[in-house]
Amino acid sequence: MSLDDGLPLIVTVTGHDRGISEKTAKQLVVSIVDDHPDFRHGVLARLPRTNSSCAAGVMATTVQEFLTLDAAEPRRSDVVLLDLHLQDQSAPVQNIARLKGGGYSVVIYTAEERPERLLGTLGVGAHAVVRKDEAERLEEALIAVVNGDHGWVSPLMASVVLAAPVPRLSSAQAEVLHLILRGGSRGAGGALAELGGVWPLWF
User: Fold this and answer.
1) How many domains does the chain contain in total?
2) Residue 132's domain is classified under what CATH number?
3) What is the b/e burial string over 27-53, where b = at least 16 CB atoms within 10 angstroms of the residue's CB?
């Protein structure tokens, strides 16, 4: 069985349970919606090989295609990696709403570089945002989302929020974001969530 077959490829990952909750003991099915086939294959083939057990789910170019394919799978996906900009010109807000309405957790996985566009991802309903050049943070984001840590923020997004012209941040929120920038991201997401998170600031 291979990714080229269009069937789920089970990727068993072993390691220590650093911060992973009981619900991640079963395999986590991760799917991807992205326009680029080589990228889709690469991401699901290179799922992090430490601290979790993952199953690569379906690959799709649109949300509708994903929903159709996933409905035919023996086990539905847990998390969907969603590119912001798809060739069908669908709106990210609508894509996220459809996926969340179907009970999926959503991680935006984008190559977008413009700070104003990245700021625009805040508050649209995704559980986390990861830039594609932050691939080393993907496992951390997935673990946070699966554990219900909706306060997780990558260092890049922390810098974008702090540099925003009108960041409606409390001093405590800003302090946690600076901690993330200094590399203290482990546990900082939980602290940020207790402070109201970052996403709600842009609703």
Assistant:
1) 2
2) 3.40.50.2300
3) bbbbbbbbeeeebbbebbeebbeebbb
The token pair that represents 43 in the structure block:
């991401």
Parent domain of 36: 3-148
DSSP string for residues in 160-193? HHHT-SS----HHHHHHHHHHHTT--TTHHHHHH
Name beta bridge partners: 30. Answer: 56, 79
C-alpha distances in angstroms, 62 versus 4, 35, 155, 162?
Answer: 18, 8, 28, 32
- Please answer whether residues 52 and 142 qualify as being in contact, where contact means their C-beta atoms are separated by less than 8 angstroms: yes
For residue 140, give the DSSP letter: H
pLDDT for 16-42, tens place per residue?
333 344 444 577 899 999 999 999 988
| 140-169 tens-digit pLDDT | 888 888 888 776 778 887 777 777 765 666
* 57 lies in the same domain as 120: yes
Nearest C-alpha neighbor of 202 from the set 137, 139, 157? 157
3 state SS of 22: helix
Do the strands 54-60 and 9-11 form a parallel or antiparallel pair, or are they unpaired? antiparallel
Same domain membership, residue 96 and residue 51:
yes
Q: Same domain for 80 and 112?
A: yes
